[in-house]
Structures are given as structure tokens and as C-alpha cells.
Design brief:
Strand content: 25-35%
Distance between the termini: 38 Å
Structural class: mainly beta
Helix content: under 10%
Shape: globular
Strand order of the largest sheet: 5-6-7-8-9-10-11-12-13-14-15-16
Largest sheet: 12 strands, antiparallel
Number of strands: 28
Length: about 475
């Protein structure tokens, strides 16, 4: 039986949605991609990325180009509504130099002419250089630009509604940067925002395409205990005032998700914008014992792609696979484990935080295993959970768990660990919550809270050999 619900647009208009959470007022293709939203028409390539857009009002047509990593690197005018670059008359109007996380660093005019360059601090837009001015962007808690102040003396303020629609400005600075709603690129030709994995239409408060994952899953990026995450078009679980989306896939608290570290505390610039009264960015504890892997408060939910040092699935020796690993019961348990860990990170749980005097990452892993009925491995004759170095040692036998072999892709519900000598720990361990094109997301316990980060990043195992284990069942 099809389910329907009411969706309210900013103007107060309500439309009914039918099966698959699609809006009845718009047309969709077989994959669920919006073909016409009443403002624009869209075409998609084989990977369901918008490759062409046509304005219903002016008839103007624009084509988009992506690189091998899936990042948009250019746009231009087209003379026929097609994605075929050899026949649609494509003429480049903008080219983009993108950073390791897909953020726009520099824009050109489609040829060799420079347009502007963006400067980021802690993953947030700080300033924009143009040929005529240097503009400093002031953003709100969501990362949405609210004011421009230029070296030239110009000043401009920006206003918009909660879902990013209704953007207006007042002042005398030129709009040198198209980064507006939560710091994402707003395309003048369509009014949509480019989030990396998908395009977001602020006029309807939804993504144009359903969410997707690199590997087949029941519901991509969903937590089954949170019904809002089951809608594949929804933007940040319909909570735009206290959630953001880093890459078009997942909702997360604002202020996190950066792969770019800002200035260290102690400098005047850092103390003005990044540091708390304790002299650390967003309350970070930069003790020597944690500096290589924690940074939990800044990177609490770093949903973006890893840029360095990922040595996933390279243990020295693999144990024999248990034949029960693929049973529906064990798969369900591993998925439940990933969901349980994700929920702790999403809620910024402090139950296992080192700063509270509680035990460290191994106790968190054990607690999650117990929570979903797997049971956390302990040492013989006691209740002490396995420490990180034993999870990480491929020669250390753990009943009902096997070490992934070289080339095997970690999956949600696997345990990740690496060995490193800290003053108060043997390494670090966590729970895998997803793997998208080799970007492995891990939830672990940090000094302040439970956080999610990317395996191989500075917050979990950069430059280390990470061992992954999979539950195979009793």
C-alpha cells in the first residue's frame, strides 16, 4: 500500500507525496530523479548526476562537467538540451579548481582567465580574493554567508529563509562568491545548490535526486531508529536550523565535518574565531597522547572523503572466514551495530569520553557490541574488554571474528583498530559505519564525546596500518 504525506513549501503551498516520497507536482524519471520541478528541466548522466539544466522561464541551457572523482569541475552554455558534449554545442563559461574534499578553491572564466580564489579556515569559507577586492565572509552557525566586508570598504548583508530559499542582499559589495547556503555553491542558472553528491533545491527544501550509496544497502545513509532518515530526498531530517549536510549524503551537527584544520590556538586569529577559554579549538584537548587521532570536537562527524593515508584492509594475515558470516541474522547484527554507533556520534554522546574519566575506545566498542546482542570479547577470567592493540593484531585470535584480508572492503558493522604507543592507550579502535568508494567512516570514542571520522585521516589512523575485523557469528 502506497504511503502519502504532506510537504509544505516556503510559500505555504502543500502538495501530496506518493510512493517513494516523490512530490506529485513534479515529474521524475525511473531512478527517482526530478525531471521538471516547475522552474527547470533536468537531464542526468549514467551516474545520476545533473548534466544539463534548462530554465522553464528563459529557455537558457547549461551543461555540467565532472572529473573522475565525481567533483564538478566546469559548466558552460549548450545549444541543444543534451548531455552529449560532442553534439550539444557546449562552450565552457566556468572552470573550477577543487580541493581534496571537493571544495571550490578557484574559479576561472572557462578559459585561462582567473575569476576568484576562496580561502578556508577550519573548513569554512573565510575570504574571497578577486581582481578588484578582497572580501571577508561572515557566516552564521550553519556556515551560511550572512555578511561580506571588503578591503575596499564595501559592506553587504545576506538574508534567507531556514531552508535557504528567499535569498536577498543589501549593501554595496559585489557577490564575488557563489557560496551561500551552508557554504555550498548556488548556481545562478538554476537557483539550486551543489552539495557534491547531489543538488539541493531550496525552493522545495529537498534534494533533486534520492540519496545513494556506493554499495547496495537497504536504505542509504539511514538510521532505522530515526524515521526522518528513511526519506531519500529529505534535507537534514527537516531540521535546517540545527543540522547541516557536508556532502549531500548525511545530516550532522553544524560546526563539524571539516577536513581542513585552522590555525592552532595561541595565535590572535585562532583565539578570535576558533578557541574556547581553555585555549583549544572548539574545546579540543591537544595532549600528546591524543593529538594523532582524536580532535574529536572539530571532526566529530567528518562525513567527507578522506584525503590522506588510508591503508584500509591491509592486515598482515587473514583468519579463516566463518561460513555463517553472510547469514541474515549476522548481517542484521552488523547493521544494527553500525546504527547504534552512528546514533551515539549523532547525539554527541559523552558516556565513554576520556575527558569524563571514563574508560577509552575499547569500552565503547564493547558496549555497542553488547547493546546489539553480539557480545563484546573479553579476556579469559575477567570482564575487561579487548584493548585496541589486540583488536589491531591480526595474529590475535578473537572468537567469532575474522580479520579481513588484503583487498577486502570493510563494511558497516566491522571493527577497525590500529596499534600506536600513547601514554595512556595501546592504540585506537572504533566501529565502521559505512564505506563509500573506499571512504571508510568510523565511529570512535574521543576525549570529549563519541565522534565519526574517516579511516586514514588524522583523526583515525593516519599513516597507520588499520586492521578490520568482521563478526561471523557463533
Amino acid at each position: 500500500m502506497a504511503r502519502s504525506s504532506v510537504f509544505c513549501l516556503s510559500g505555504g503551498q502543500s502538495v501530496w507525496t506518493g510512493r517513494g516520497n516523490r512530490l506529485s507536482a513534479y515529474s521524475y524519471d525511473a531512478a527517482g530523479n526530478v525531471m521538471n520541478d516547475g522552474v527547470n528541466q533536468y537531464l542526468y548522466d549514467a551516474e545520476d548526476r545533473v548534466c544539463a539544466v534548462k530554465s522553464d522561464t528563459t529557455g537558457a541551457m547549461t551543461g555540467y562537467i565532472y572529473d573522475g572523482a565525481g567533483d564538478r569541475v566546469g559548466k558552460g552554455t549548450i545549444t541543444s538540451f543534451s548531455c552529449n558534449l560532442s553534439s550539444n554545442g557546449f562552450v565552457a563559461t566556468s572552470g573550477y579548481v577543487v580541493g581534496l574534499s571537493g571544495e571550490q578553491l578557484t574559479e576561472t572564466n572557462g578559459g585561462t582567465g582567473w575569476v576568484h580564489t576562496h580561502v578556508y579556515a577550519n573548513g569554512k569559507l573565510l575570504a574571497t580574493y578577486t581582481s578588484s577586492d578582497t572580501l571577508f565572509e561572515l557566516s552564521d552557525w550553519l556556515g551560511t554567508k550572512r555578511a561580506d566586508v571588503g578591503v575596499s570598504g564595501c559592506e553587504t548583508t545576506w538574508q534567507s529563509l531556514p531552508f535557504g530559499d528567499g535569498l536577498t542582499s543589501s549593501g554595496n559589495c559585489s557577490d564575488s562568491s557563489e557560496l551561500h547556503f551552508t557554504g555550498k555553491e548556488r548556481d545562478a542558472e538554476s537557483g539550486n545548490d551543489y552539495f557534491g553528491a547531489r543538488y539541493y533545491a531550496s525552493n522545495m527544501g529537498r534534494f533533486l535526486t534520492p540519496d545513494w550509496a556506493a554499495k547496495a544497502v537497504t536504505v542509504p545513509y539511514a538510521s532505522f531508529g530515526d524515521p526522518q532518515t528513511l526519506n531519500l530526498y529529505v534535507y537534514v531530517e527537516n531540521g535546517p536550523l540545527n543540522r547541516v549536510d557536508a556532502d549531500g549524503h548525511m545530516s550532522q551537527p553544524p560546526g563539524y565535518g571539516s577536513t581542513l584544520m585552522g590555525p592552532r590556538c595561541g595565535s590572535a586569529a585562532a583565539d578570535m574565531i576558533l578557541c574556547d577559554s581553555g585555549g583549544s579549538p572548539f574545546g579540543l584537548d591537544y595532549s600528546a597522547a591524543e593529538a594523532n587521532y582524536d580532535a574529536a570536537y572539530v571532526a566529530q562527524v567528518e562525513w567527507v572523503s578522506a584525503s590522506t593515508g588510508n591503508k584500509a584492509a591491509q592486515p598482515a594475515q587473514a583468519q579463516q572466514q566463518n561460513s555463517g558470516e553472510g547469514s541474515s541474522s549476522n548481517v542484521d547484527k552488523r547493521n544494527a551495530l553500525a546504527d547504534a554507533a552512528y546514533d551515539e556520534a549523532k547525539n554527541r554522546s559523552t558516556n565513554w569520553a576520556q575527558g569524563n574519566g571514563a574508560p577509552k575506545c575499547n569500552v565503547f566498542v564493547c558496549a555497542m557490541l553488547n547493546k546489539v546482542g553480539i557480545g563484546g570479547p573479553t579476556y579469559p577470567g575477567g570482564d575487561n574488554p579487548l584493548v585496541a592493540q589486540d583488536w589491531a593484531n591480526p595474529k590475535f585470535k578473537v572468537d567469532n571474528w575474522r580479520v579481513l584480508g588484503p583487498g577486502e572492503a570493510p563494511q558497516a558493522g566491522d571493527v577497525a583498530a590500529y596499534k600506536e604507543s600513547f601514554s595512556n592507550a595501546t592504540g585506537h579502535s572504533g566501529i565502521v559505519t559505512g564505506n563509500e568508494n573506499g571512504t571508510i567512516r568510523v565511529v570512535a570514542a574521543g576525549s570529549r564525546s563519541i565522534y565519526q571520522t574517516t579511516a586514514g585521516s588524522k583523526y583515525f589512523g593516519q599513516g597507520m596500518v588499520i586492521t578490520y575485523r568482521r563478526y561471523t557469528g557463533p
